[in-house]
Design goal:
The complex is a heterotrimer of chains A (about 290), B (about 325) and C (about 375). Chain A has twelve helices and no strands. Chain A has about 290 residues and is mostly helical. Chain A has one domain. In chain A, helix 2 runs antiparallel to helix 3, helix 3 packs antiparallel against helix 9 and helix 6 packs across helix 7. The radius of gyration of chain A is 19 Å and the shape is globular. By secondary structure, chain B is mainly alpha-helical. Chain C has a five-stranded parallel β-sheet, with helices on both faces. Chain C starts with 5 loop residues before the first helix and ends with a strand. Classes of the chains: A mainly alpha (about 290), B mainly alpha (about 325), C alpha/beta (about 375). Chains in contact: A-B, A-C, B-C.
Chain lengths: ~290, ~325, ~375
C-alpha cells in the first residue's frame, strides 16, 4: 500500500545518504556538515531539467548526480589546500549559502517550493517498480562503498586518516584522494535527491536544512561509523522507528521536542558510553595524537 | 541613495547592534584560541543565558539587575559544566576533532530541544516590551538601548583585555594558547586555565544575550543562527586574534546593514556566507595578518604556526 | 567482523509487527462511524497553533456527536501529526488514505498542503486546506479545496481600504523574504496601484535579520503616507519598533500575523494605530464567538493562539458532517468521489462561527475581511470589507 511504499522509499534514501556520508566522514575522515545541500542539488537539478527542459527523467537524475559531484569538488578544492578544520566551517557556509540562493531564486520556486515534478516509472509500472528501483540503488551504493572501503584505496584512506603527515611523506597525494571521496559521497547524495524528487514530486528548501545534517550525522554516529551495517541500522532507527511509535498513540504533548531530545540525547549518550555506535568498528574516534589538548 | 544622514544612521545603528555580535565573536575566538576547540556548544550557553534571564524577569517578575545577576550565575554554572563534564572528558580520551564537533553540535541541538519543551516555540524577549525611547541627535535617531549596549561591550572587552595583559592568569592563558604542554612544564595549571577561559567566554555570552534579548525576539534555535556570525568574524579576524575577531564583527555588521543600499534586499542574507567562503579560501589566516609560510595541510599545524607568530609578537 | 545488530534488528521487526497489528485493528473497528482525517502540526515549532486548532476541531466533533452525530452514527476524526513538515505530512496523509481509508481530510500549512496534493488527487480523496493562505493552493488539483480565504483576499482588502477609504496615495511595502512575504507583497502592489496609488518603496528583509535600519531608511527617504508590513510573528514587532524609532510615523498595516495581543504588549505606545486583518469575526462581533472565547478561557485558561484559525477549524467538522449527512440520506457510500460530488452540489454551508461559506468554482472561498486597529492599547474593529 502507498503508506508502506512511502516509508520504504524514505528509509532506502536515508540509507543511501547515511552510507555516503559515512564514506566522507567515517572512511575519509573529512569533517563536513554539507550533505543535505548535495541531496538538494541533486533533487532540484533533476526536477528542473525534467520539468522545465523536458529532459527524460533517467538523464535528469544522472545530471543531478553530476551537478552534486561538481559542486562538492568546488567546495572542497579551495579549502583542502588550507586545512581540514576549515572544511568544516566552509561546509557550514556552503550548506547555508546554497540554500539561501535556492530560496531566493525564482526558477527553483523559491521558498514556496518546486511543484509538479514529473513522475517516473509509476504511471507505467506502478509504485512497486519505483520502490524496487530505490532499493536496487540502495544495495548498489552499499556494495560500492563497501568495495571502496575494503580495497587498497580503502587502506590508503585509513592511512591518510590516521596520520596525514606520514602519508604525505610516503609520496601519496592526500588531496586527490579526499577530492575523490568527497565527490563520490556527495554525488551519491545527489542521486538520492533525484530519486526523492521524482517520487514525492514536491520539494522545498526547508527539507534540506541543517537539521537534516544533524539527522544524518546521528544515523552514522549511532549506527556505527566506518562499518557497512552501521549507517543502515542508523537510518532504519531514525526513520522507521518514529513511524512505528506513532502507532502507539501517545499523547502529542509527549512526542515532539521529546523526539528531538531523544535523538540528540541518544547521540550524546552513545558518544560517551559506546562511541563505536551500535555496530562497532575499531578505534573510530581516536585522534592521531595532539588533536585535542 | 548615498545621503549623509542615511549613512550616518546606518553606521550608528550597525555599531550599536554589533555590540552583541562582538561579544559572541570574542567569546568564540577566546575559547578557540586557548583550548583549540571550535565551541559550537556556545549556542547552548547562549540559549541557557537567554532563558534564565527571561524566566527571572517574566515569570518571577524580579527587577532587571536581579535578572542580570541570576543569568550570569546560571550561565557561568553551565559553562563550568560544559568544561568540566564535557570538554575535560573529551580531552582525557584523546578524541579527534570530529568527535568534538559532533559533541558540541549535538549539545546545542539538545539544549534547543529542551528549551522548546520548557518554553514552547513562541518568540520571546527578556523584557515584555522591546520598544526603547528615541532621541534625535541632528537627524540621527539614537535609541536608549544603543549607548548602554555599546558601553557594556566596551567595558567587557576592556576587562578581558586588561585581564589577559596585566594579570598572571591572563599571561598563563596566552602561554597555554601557544603551547599547553610547555606551559605545564613551567608550572601552569592547564586545567584551571581551560576552566577560566570557558567561564570568561560564558560571561561574555551572558552579557551579549542580555543585550540581544532586550532588543529582539529569541526562539530556542536562535543561538545556532547567531553562531554563524561569530564564527565568520573569528575566521576573518584571524584565528588566535581576539581584537581581530572584535573588529571583524563590527565591520561585518556594518557591511551587512549598509549593503542594502547597493544590492537588492533579497540577497542581504547571502552576504555573510559569501564573506565566510571568501575568507576561508583567500584569507585563511584572517584579513589582518597575511603571513607567508609554507604549511602541510594537516589539522592542527596551521593553527600552531599562526600561534607562534602571534604569541611572539605579543598580540592577544 | 560480524555486526552485533540482532538486538536492534529484532527491535525494529517487533515494532513493525506491533504497528501492523494496530493498523489492522484500527481498520476493523472503523465501519460504524463516519470518519475523516485531520493532519496538523502537533509537535514542532508550529505546534503552538496546530494544537489549538486541533482542540477546536475536537470540540466541534464532540458537539456534533452529542447532538446525535450524523443521522445517529458517530462522527470520528483521526488526528495525525505533520510537524508542518511536507515530508512528514506526506506520511501522515498516506496513512490516512491507505490505512484509515478516509474519504476526506483537513490539513494546513502551505508546504504540507502542496506536498500532499498529488496524493489526494491520485487517490480521489478530498483535501480541505483550512488555514494555509498561499495563492497557488487554488490550482493544486481537482480534489484540493480551501475553506480559508487565500492571501489575495485579505491583502486586497487592506490595500483597497488604504487607497480608497483612508485616501493614501503613496505606499511603502516592507516584507519578509519568504513565501508568505513575497506573494502577499505582490498582491498589495498590484491592488494598490490599480486603485490609483503609487508604491514608492518595495523592500524585502532576510528572515534571520534583526536589524532593519537599511530598509527602513530607504522607506523613510521615499516618503510614503502608508506602510504595509508583511512579516511573521517573530519579526513583526521588531520591524514596527524600529520603524517608530527611526522616525517613521506613518500608519502601518499588516495581516493576521500582527493580530495578536502580545504585539500590543511588546510595542506599548508604538502599537497605536497599527492595522491588521482578521478573517474571522471577533468576540465583539458575534455571540457565538464570544461564548467560544469564554469557553477557551474557562477550560484552557487563556485565549486560543491564532483565534481566527481556530474558528475555521471549529467550523470544518460541521461542514463535513453536513456532507456526510447528505450522503447518508441518499444511501451513498462515503467515498472520496461521492464526498466531492456532494460537497460541490451543496456549494454553500452555514457554519457556526465563521458564518456563510460558499465554495467557488476556483476551489476557494471569499469571506469578509475584518480590519482591526490598535486603539487605546486594545485591538478594536475598524471596518469590515466585503460582507
Amino acid at each position: 500500500m502507498e503508506y508502506i511504499d512511502g516509508i520504504i522509499i524514505i528509509v532506502g534514501l536515508y540509507v543511501i545518504l547515511a552510507t555516503s556520508f559515512n564514506l566522507i566522514i567515517g572512511y575519509g575522515g573529512l569533517v563536513s556538515i554539507a550533505h543535505p545541500v548535495f541531496f538538494a542539488l541533486g533533487a532540484y537539478t533533476s526536477a528542473i531539467l525534467a520539468r522545465n527542459f523536458g529532459l527524460p527523467v533517467p538523464l535528469a537524475m544522472v545530471a543531478g548526480m553530476v551537478v552534486a559531484l561538481v559542486a562538492s569538488v568546488a567546495l572542497v578544492l579551495p579549502t583542502l589546500r588550507v586545512s581540514g578544520d576549515y572544511l568544516l566551517i566552509a561546509s557550514i557556509g556552503f550548506q547555508l549559502g546554497v540554500l539561501e540562493i535556492i530560496k531566493n531564486v525564482r526558477f527553483t520556486g523559491g521558498a514556496g517550493g518546486y511543484t509538479n515534478i514529473p513522475p517516473f516509472l509509476i504511471r507505467d509500472f506502478g509504485r512497486e517498480a519505483y520502490v524496487a528501483l530505490v532499493l536496487a540503488v540502495m544495495v548498489a551504493v552499499i556494495l560500492l562503498v563497501r568495495l571502496v572501503a575494503r580495497s587498497d584505496y580503502g587502506r590508503a584512506m585509513s592511512a591518510m586518516r590516521d596520520d596525514e603527515l606520514a602519508f604525505a611523506s610516503l609520496g601519496r597525494n592526500a588531496m586527490w584522494m579526499k577530492l575523490a571521496i568527497f565527490g563520490l559521497g556527495s554525488g551519491l547524495a545527489g542521486l538520492a535527491g533525484a530519486l526523492y524528487a521524482h517520487y514525492f514530486r514536491f520539494i522545498t528548501p526547508e527539507q534540506f536544512e541543517i537539521l537534516q545534517s544533524s539527522a544524518i550525522l546521528t544515523m552514522v554516529v549511532v549506527g556505527g561509523m566506518r562499518t557497512t551495517w552501521g549507517p543502515i541500522v542508523g537510518a532504519l532507527l531514525l526513520e522507521a522507528l518514529p513511524q512505528a511509535i506513532t502507532f502507539l498513540n501517545l499523547p502529542p504533548s509527549i512526542l515532539g521536542p521529546i523526539q528531538g531530545l531523544l535523538f540528540t540525547g541518544l547521540v550524546l549518550v552513545f558518544m560517551f558510553f559506546r562511541p563505536q555506535g551500535l555496530v562497532p568498528a575499531e578505534n573510530v574516534w581516536r585522534g592521531g595524537g595532539g588533536e585535542t589538548r | 541613495m548615498l545621503n549623509a544622514t542615511i549613512l550616518l544612521q546606518i553606521l550608528w545603528t550597525s555599531l550599536a547592534t554589533s555590540s552583541y555580535y562582538v561579544l559572541f565573536a570574542v567569546a568564540f575566538a577566546l575559547v578557540l584560541k586557548v583550548t583549540r576547540i571550535f565551541n559550537f556548544a556556545q549556542a547552548a550557553i547562549m540559549t541557557v543565558a537567554f532563558y534564565s534571564a527571561f524566566v527571572t524577569v517574566q515569570w518571577l517578575e524580579w527587577p532587571a539587575w536581579a535578572a542580570f545577576v541570576v543569568m550570569m550565575a546560571i550561565t557561568l554554572a553551565a559553562s563550568f559544566a560544559l568544561e568540566r563534564i564535557g570538554f575535560e572528558a573529551l580531552r582525557k580520551r584523546g578524541v579527534s576533532v570530529m568527535f568534538v564537533f559532533v559533541f558540541t553540535f549535538m549539545v546545542s541541538e539538545f539544549v534547543a530541544y529542551l528549551a522548546m519543551l520548557a518554553f514552547g516555540t513562541w518568540p520571546q524577549t527578556i523584557f515584555p516590551t522591546i520598544f526603547w525611547p528615541v532621541t534625535l541627535v541632528g537627524n540621527i535617531a539614537i535609541s536608549a538601548w544603543d549607548l548602554p549596549a555599546i558601553g557594556a561591550t566596551i567595558v567587557m572587552l576592556a576587562l578581558l583585555f586588561s585581564f589577559m595583559r596585566f594579570t598572571r592568569m591572563g599571561q598563563f592563558m596566552v602561554g597555554v594558547a601557544d603551547n599547553p604542554d610547555l606551559a605545564e612544564l613551567y608550572g601552569v595549571n592547564k586545567r584551571q586555565i581551560f576552566l577560566v577561559t570557558v567561564l570568561m567566554a560564558g560571561a561574555l555570552v551572558a552579557v551579549g544575550m542580555f543585550l540581544y534579548g532586550t532588543r529582539a525576539q529569541v526562539l530556542p534555535q536562535t543561538g545556532l543562527s547567531l553562531m554563524l556570525f561569530a564564527i565568520a568574524a573569528t575566521i576573518i579576524g584571524g584565528i588566535g586574534n581576539l581584537a581581530g575577531a572584535a573588529i571583524a564583527a563590527v565591520i561585518l555588521g556594518v557591511i551587512q546593514n549598509s549593503s542594502i543600499l547597493v544590492i537588492p534586499s533579497e540577497w542581504q542574507g547571502l552576504l555573510l556566507y559569501v564573506f565566510l567562503f571568501l575568507a576561508i579560501v583567500f584569507f585563511p589566516n584572517g584579513l589582518r595578518m597575511p603571513r607567508r609560510r609554507r604549511r602541510f595541510a594537516t589539522a592542527t599545524r596551521d593553527i600552531g604556526d599562526n600561534q607562534d607568530v602571534s604569541a611572539a609578537e605579543g598580540q592577544v | 567482523m560480524s555486526p552485533r545488530i540482532w538486538n536492534v534488528k529484532g527491535l525494529t521487526k517487533a515494532a513493525a509487527v506491533v504497528a501492523l497489528l494496530m493498523a489492522s485493528g484500527a481498520a476493523a473497528s472503523a465501519q460504524q462511524a463516519y470518519r475523516f482525517g485531520l493532519a496538523m502540526p502537533l509537535t514542532g515549532s508550529q505546534a503552538l497553533y496546530g494544537q489549538d486548532q486541533v482542540k477546536a476541531a475536537q470540540w466541534a466533533v464532540d458537539e456534533i456527536n452529542k447532538a446525535g452525530g450524523v443521522n445517529g452514527k458517530k462522527l470520528e476524526m483521526i488526528v495525525l501529526d505533520t510537524q508542518a513538515d511536507p515530508q512528514i505530512g506526506i506520511q501522515a496523509v498516506n496513512r490516512l488514505i491507505s490505512v484509515e481509508k478516509v474519504p476526506a481530510f483537513i490539513t494546513a500549512w502551505s508546504g504540507v498542503v502542496k506536498a500532499v496534493a498529488p496524493i489526494a488527487n491520485d487517490n480521489k480523496v478530498v483535501e480541505l486546506s483550512v488555514g494555509a493562505n498561499s495563492p497557488d493552493i487554488a490550482a493544486l488539483g481537482d480534489y484540493v479545496y480551501t475553506t480559508f480565504p487565500l492571501a489575495d483576499i485579505d491583502i486586497r482588502a487592506v490595500a483597497n481600504y488604504a487607497a480608497t477609504k483612508m485616501g493614501k496615495k503613496k505606499a511603502a511595502i516592507v516584507f519578509i523574504n519568504a513565501d508568505t512575504g513575497t506573494a502577499a507583497a505582490e498582491v498589495y502592489k498590484k491592488v494598490f496601484t490599480a486603485a490609483g496609488g503609487q508604491v514608492v518603496a518595495y523592500e524585502a528583509y532576510d528572515p534571520k535579520a534583526t536589524d532593519f535600519t537599511g530598509q527602513l531608511l530607504k522607506v523613510r527617504a521615499a516618503n510614503p503616507d502608508m506602510i504595509h508590513l508583511q512579516g511573521l510573528v517573530s519579526d513583526t514587532p521588531q520591524v514596527i519598533a524600529q520603524m517608530r524609532q527611526l522616525g517613521l510615523t506613518q500608519p502601518v498595516s499588516s495581516y493576521s500575523a500582527a493580530y495578536n495581543p502580545k504585539l500590543v504588549q511588546q510595542l506599548g505606545a508604538a502599537a497605536e494605530g497599527v492595522i491588521a486583518t482578521s478573517l474571522a469575526p471577533g468576540a465583539a462581533d458575534s455571540e457565538k464567538v464570544k461564548d467560544y472565547v469564554a469557553r477557551w478561557v474557562k477550560e484552557v485558561g487563556r485565549e486560543p493562539n491564532g483565534l481566527p484559525y481556530t474558528e475555521y477549524l471549529y467550523d470544518a467538522p460541521y461542514m463535513i458532517a453536513d456532507i456526510f449527512k447528505a450522503l447518508d440520506n441518499k444511501k451513498l457510500p462515503p467515498t472520496g468521489e461521492n464526498f466531492r460530488k456532494e460537497m460541490l452540489a451543496q456549494g454553500a454551508f452555514k457554519l457556526p462561527l465563521t458564518g456563510n461559506t460558499k465554495l467557488g468554482a476556483d476551489h476557494t472561498v471569499v469571506k469578509p475581511v475584518y480590519l482591526m486597529e490598535v486603539k487605546g492599547g486594545k485591538w478594536t474593529k475598524k471596518a469590515v470589507v466585503g460582507e
